[in-house]
Design a protein that fits this description.
The structure holds two protein chains of two kinds. By secondary structure, chain A is of the alpha+beta class. Chain A contains nine helices and 21 strands. Classes of the chains: A alpha+beta, B alpha+beta. At the A-B interface, α5, α6, α7 and β16 of A face α5, α6, α7 and β16 of B.
């Protein structure tokens, strides 16, 4: 097992690429040894290219890939010592489950006693003991995928396990069980694992560290909680969470963000940071943290920080409702757990839960508006006070 | 004025795909057909579209027989899971094609580039946010855009019956979210009869429409989405119409006390709607969102359990708990990566318990007051 490091990697599928023809743009990634990682992003973001670079299926246009201290940039897949689980299970249909699991070991000439011992251990872990003598051909897709995983795990000397959308063929009702197995396996073996997916639930359930990608770049690396509570880029706010974060353009005036002529006070800390540089500013607030002010149906502005809106639509989901509201020419969504949701057409006042409002400059977070004050923004550029 | 299905069934090679279905559906509104994969949704839509004939039964729309009208003469449009467009026609011509066919049918003299066709194509393209793509070919645009073209073409037909078979299932979830919002506006705004098939109960709730719950070839319930949510007709209906599925556990009731493995509680103290339950065995249902962890509400039913998995959706955490012989899912708002194997106390809000029969049908016996 090892750290996997991608140092200043760029990649294009074109021989003499223009700047616009790169699918990965100067990516720096450090997958820590023994950790569960996910690469998450929409289709076309470059995550599959990155996986293929790590496995050695393709080689980067520029930059270096290291497994620990070893430079593997130009090494082929078979010399990288990795296990892979693909979207569709890859098994030898005519072989038994036992022989499928044993294949990677026998292929490397390991003695029978070791083969028997390792296959037994893996079968035990994955609850495959009763299946070992069956042929792979007629098994369900779920079971086949578990066996594919088992084949990846059976060698104890792999540097890393790469998983490419491994739940694609799994029945929706069974997905949680496979997710549990993957998680248990990780906690037991602590392989360096990299899970590639476009699905936020897959990524956040499996991984401790999630790398969110968009347009050939990493936009944020963080724990699931960090991605939810403190998106560092507006894309992360939009992409993580259902519905995603409300992101509204604003102007900065005297310590406040102005949206559609209404004023949202910023903390002094945020204001001092924000006023330093020009840029295009946006506020971000998750629908979970938009609150309806009780009795706030008048059109006046109410208390500082309260905004007048008009409710345009309400979806009643049983335990909660999603209200859409107009704030000037902008739309804002609120996830409400009030017993009686507001009615469309109604004027209402909203406010934002303390500490959950973020300010973005050119899509990057300025700094968090946190009540506890325990968070300090990243070091300011040279020339700051 | 209604769409009526009487005893409609479908058997293929001796295998029943649909058991006899009776449905009475209002015309001119949106209906959501909710069921898991292989529940029979596509089979039913194909029969309504006229692509397949039912093995038995009749279908009438506003009193007119639908089954025996030839496909060409039916006023039906269908949108499929796959993005089906004419590959050699531009986006413009794809949307215009049903309009041209109708025009040609009505009069042979009509010129090909008629101004009303042009206006309609542009209007639909505007609604579906593809106005800037009209000159492209289908393979030059993204999957989401291709599905918009297919939907625009189906709407262009102006058919009496519009059928959509999981139209968003092959899209990225973010695109799905956005298109669901747009479709809600478009489909609830038309006067066409629309049947929209999905495996996601959240879509039925988002559309707020009449909901038909289909499971293993049978219609389990036909009611408003909120009615199905709060008063599912059976355990099976609750299970289909729940994401995650509803938690269900068996209890033995005697003298006003309910016993389950590892716990017991007084029904009268728990909640008014449970007070009058007769002695006997039942199955109780509770949604994941009505369970909490490590809370100390006085009258809540508490069970110790072990964390089996935390599924994190981005804004919610679904904690799978093993509690003696039962498996529960708890929905927490926010991101909470509990340790696997950790012991936590599960709390059930008794005022949200549903009571089902303990037999195979699992019919709803008592529901809470909304």
């Amino acid at each position: 097992m090892a750290d996997i490091i991608l140092a200043d990697i760029s990649h294009s599928y074109v021989a003499q690429p223009d700047p616009s023809e790169y699918v990965l743009r100067r990516v720096d990634v450090h997958f820590g040894d023994g950790e569960a990682h996910a690469l998450l992003g929409p289709s076309g973001c470059g995550k599959t290219t990155m996986l293929n670079l790590i496995s050695g299926l393709i080689h980067p246009t520029s930059g270096q890939i290291r497994y620990g201290a070893k430079d593997v940039t130009r090494l082929p897949t078979r010399r990288r010592n990795i296990a892979q689980v693909f979207q569709f299970p890859v098994l030898y249909d005519t072989m038994t489950v036992f022989d499928n699991l044993a294949f990677p070991l026998r292929n490397r000439g390991r003695p029978d006693s070791e083969v028997k011992k390792r296959v037994g251990e893996i079968a035990d872990l994955l609850e495959l003991d009763s299946e070992l003598t069956r042929r792979a051909a007629n098994l369900t897709p779920d079971l086949k995928q578990i066996i594919s995983l088992g084949r990846g795990l059976v060698r104890d000397d792999v540097a890393a396990i790469l998983l490419d959308e491994p739940l694609t063929v799994i029945d929706p009702q069974r997905k949680w069980q496979i997710r549990r197995t993957l998680r248990q396996v990780h906690e037991q073996f602590r392989h360096t694992s990299i899970y590639v997916t476009h699905d936020q639930t897959e990524a956040l359930t499996f991984a401790d560290r999630v790398w969110v990608m968009n347009e050939g770049k990493i936009v944020q690396e963080g724990s699931p909680d960090e991605l939810f509570r403190r998106p560092e880029h507006t894309f992360v706010g939009y992409f993580i969470g259902t519905p995603g974060m409300n992101i509204l353009p604003c102007q900065l005036v005297d310590g406040a963000a102005m949206v559609a002529g209404q004023s949202i006070p910023l903390s002094d800390e945020v204001w001092q940071q924000a006023r330093r540089d020009q840029g295009s500013f946006e506020i971000g607030i998750r629908p979970e943290f938009v609150e309806l002010v009780a009795g706030g149906d008048s059109t006046d502005h109410g208390q500082p920080g309260e905004l007048s809106v008009t409710i345009t639509a309400v979806e009643d989901h049983g335990r909660f409702s999603i209200a859409s509201a107009e704030l000037g020419e902008h739309q804002i969504k609120a996830k409400l757990t009030d017993r009686v949701p507001p009615a469309p057409g109604q004027n209402a006042r909203i406010r934002f839960a303390g500490g959950e409002l973020h300010l973005y400059r050119d899509q990057r977070i300025v700094c968090a508006d946190e009540p506890s004050g325990d968070h300090r923004p990243a070091a300011t550029p040279a020339g700051g006070n | 004025m209604s769409l009526e299905l009487n005893g409609v069934s479908k058997t293929v090679g001796g295998q029943p795909h649909l058991y006899p279905i009776d449905l009475h559906l209002e015309v001119g509104v949106l209906h959501i057909l909710v069921g898991r994969t292989r529940a029979g949704k596509t089979s039913l839509l194909r029969i309504l579209a006229g692509l397949d004939s039912p093995s038995t039964g009749t279908i009438t729309m506003n009193g007119q027989d639908l089954v025996h009208i030839p496909l060409r003469k039916r006023s039906v449009a269908m949108v499929y899971q796959e993005f089906v467009n004419y590959p050699s026609l531009t986006v413009y011509e794809n949307i215009a094609s049903p309009l041209r066919r109708q025009k040609a049918k009505r009069s042979d003299k009509g010129s090909a580039a008629s101004p009303d066709i042009d206006a309609r194509v542009r209007e639909l393209a505007e609604t579906l946010h593809i106005a800037h793509l009209l000159d492209r070919l289908p393979n030059q645009i993204s999957g989401g855009q291709q599905q918009r073209v297919a939907i625009a073409r189906a709407l262009a037909k102006g058919a009496d019956l519009l059928l959509l078979d999981e139209p968003l299932v092959n899209l990225d979830y973010k695109l799905r979210e956005q298109m669901r919002d747009e479709l809600a506006d478009i489909l609830t705004g038309t006067t066409t009869t629309v049947i929209y098939a999905t495996s996601e109960p959240g879509e039925a709730l988002a559309f707020g429409a009449n909901t038909i719950v289909l499971d293993k070839g049978r219609v389990l319930q036909n009611a408003s989405a909120l009615e199905v949510y709060h008063r599912p007709a059976s355990i099976a209906a609750a299970s289909v119409f729940g994401d995650p599925p509803m938690n269900v556990f068996a209890v033995e009731v005697k003298d006003g006390v309910a016993r389950l493995t590892g716990a017991e509680f007084s029904l009268r103290q728990a909640s008014d709607h449970l007070a009058e339950l007769d002695d006997g065995t039942y199955r109780l249902g509770i949604r994941a969102s009505d369970c909490t962890l490590e809370t100390t509400e006085a009258n809540h039913l508490q069970l110790p359990g072990t964390v089996e998995l935390c599924e994190i959706s981005g804004s919610e955490t679904y904690v799978h708990m093993g509690c003696s012989q039962n498996h529960f899912i708890v929905q927490e708002d926010g991101v909470f990566p509990h340790q696997l194997g950790q012991t936590l106390t599960l709390s059930i809000d008794p005022s949200r318990l549903l009571v089902f029969a303990a037999d195979r049908e699992g019919t709803l016996i008592k529901s809470y007051h909304r």
